[in-house]
Amino acid sequence: MAEAGKKTRQFRAEVRKVLHILTNSLYTNREIFLRELISNASDALDKLRYRMNRGEKPRYDDVPLEIRIHLDKEAKTLTIADTGLGMTADELVDNLGTIAKSGSEQFLAELATAQEGKNADTKSEDASNIIGRFGVGFYSVFMVASKVEVTSRPAFGDDETANVWTSDGLGTFTIAAADCEKQQQGTIVKAWLKDDATEFLEKFRVESVIRKHSAFVPFPVYVDDSQVNTQPALWREPKFNITKDQYSAFYKAITYDAKDPLDVLHFSADAPVQFNALLFTPDGEQDFFGAERDAWGLDLYARRVLIQHRNQELLPEYLAFLKGVVDTEDLPLNISRETLQENVVLRKINQVLVKQTLSHLEKLVKDDTEKYERFWKLHGRIFKLGYNDFANRERITALLRFNSSTMADADALTSLDAYMERAQEGQKTFWYIVAPNREAARLNPHMERFHRKGIEVLWLYEPVDEFVMDGLGTYKEWTFKSAETAADNALDSFADKEQPAHEAVAPLSEEEQSSFDALLARMKDILGDKVKEVRVSHRLADSPAVLVAPDGGMSSSMEKFLKVMRKDDTLPVKVLEVNRDHPLLRNMLRMFRADSEDRTLADMTRSLFDSSLLLDGYLKDPQELAARSRKLLEEAAAWYTEVRKL
């Protein structure tokens, strides 16, 4: 029962210490106080609605269920009023006089006791809408207020008295009877704002906070008679009732994207965690490897109240392209509501989101290939990182797409399953080459024997691609291997499908072969420690030379990537393989046999090495190559002129 006159009470000593922490340290963003007060008001309205649905009749049953905020700049007060359940004097003392005392938790406990031994009915679901499981959020108001007055009148019961709780948050609070004529039912929180918090007397500032944190509470919120929360919580609506335009409008509202989303995924889950999710795939590329590295995550709500913007625990990084909302009924929070108390719930939600997203993409592959290929071109770069998800690796691998040597152009894509269907009999390897673009891949000397054998090679254009291949290891018992590191006999079991572009030349005589071996030794002397070895190539058909990793070495793209990571700019020491049947090498052999110390032969050897470095992406001194090439051109032109004179 309420007391007849004003009575001052002391907070407990430990409570005063906790209150000091709450008002000065716990919350990093002062605008949170408004979210807490609106959540408490919504909680009180939910409780009232539940009891009305259960058949109880409130003192005033014609009062609209709403939340109203009034700003008074002259008096420096911010007032939040709800028409909800209200509190008695004893409840004011219990709920506002004791830190970490949650009226909502007690309400749910009483509800559970009342329903014990009874069959659950449809009305019992209303109880799950109660927001106020967060303990001491009310006290965040003292971050901005020097004095707070809470006037409340219960909606049920014999006690019709309105009571007012008043405190400055420093150590005491008072309880006194209030004038019933001023209030029908519910609670009014009036805060006298500090001088450094007058920004919350500006209507636009308060409205922006509501739109950010409380835009989807299930009751209308008015600021000086203007309703702010007009956008419905679309994720809680049945998806068959929602139009494409509504989805697009909601997406644009939460992302500020001018374009409609490429795709929508909307679903509810009951186990292992109860939650609703509304996810969007943007119709635009995002730079997750640059400026937008950390600009991802889903908005996490608890019963329509925003808990965390861009929560990254809800999604693995390879699904970072998704935008949207997750609203859970089962989220445990600590006293600040800013830090999650446990991550186990989020991990369970994460698992469900991953499975639902992969299922959706698999369905898209079957039903709308064109849309899936657009998704891949926009977001495939980040989605590839899913190769690290061991639990879902098989499903993710099936969704990967690549360009390849059999595709018509750089925009065409193939799956690994389609590659396997086109492969030659007996092939059990996915061959690939990493290159900056399609033309570079086509001209890569390592491609020559694959062209000759008619074996398809995946062309990879992103630095991460080779890590993906190495990380995958196998797919359906097929292995992944770089064409650069293929052994000399790797393709011997496959018949030639094409002939080299150059006409076949006569094989070297025994004497010429001996001279060619000497030429290789001379080329090694000329290049010195720039190469590990100079040897005859068994992989080339049309190119004169190529650099290859020593036996068991890594591909050039992987080596470049690791050198960048180590900040190592030295040139790798590789093996220079030469095509002894190429016209250039046959002419160099003639020059060597005429004069093994020929200066032009030395320049040609260095140019051959530099051009191989250039194809490998390693050339550090293009000026030297250009100067040497000009010199060789001058000499070639002079020789040609002399020959023409003859």
What does this structure look like?
By secondary structure, the protein is an alpha+beta fold. The protein contains 18 helices and 22 strands. The protein has helices spanning 13-26, 32-53, 89-96, 103-115, 203-213, 244-255, 344-367, 369-383, 393-399, 416-422, 438-443, 448-453, 464-472, 510-527, 556-566, 583-594, 599-616, 622-645; strands spanning 7-10, 67-72, 77-82, 145-153, 162-167, 172-178, 186-193, 221-223, 226-227, 263-269, 275-281, 298-302, 305-311, 323-328, 403-404, 429-434, 458-460, 474-475, 478-482, 531-536, 545-548, 574-578. The strands form 4 sheets. Strands 1-6-5-4-7-3-2-8-9 form a 9-stranded mixed beta sheet, with helices on one face. Strands 10-11-14-12-13 form a 5-stranded mixed beta sheet, with helices on both faces. Strands 15-17-16-19-18 form a 5-stranded mixed beta sheet. A hairpin with a 2-residue loop joins strand 12 (298-302) and strand 13 (305-311). The longest helix is centred in the middle third of the chain and has 24 residues, at 344-367. It is elongated.
**How far apart are the first and last residues' alpha carbons, in Å?**
125 Å
Number of helices: 18
Oligomer: single chain
Structural class by secondary-structure content: alpha+beta
**Residue windows where pLDDT falls under 50 for at least 5 positions:** 119-135, 333-339
- Rg over C-alpha atoms, rounded to the nearest angstrom: 37 Å
Please count the beta strands (DSSP E, at least 2 residues each). Answer: 22
Integer average pLDDT: 85
How much strand content do the residues show?
15-25%
How would a crystallographer describe the biggest sheet? Answer: 9 strands, mixed
Shape: elongated
Q: Percent range for helical residues?
A: 25-40%
| Spatial order of strands in the largest sheet | 1-6-5-4-7-3-2-8-9
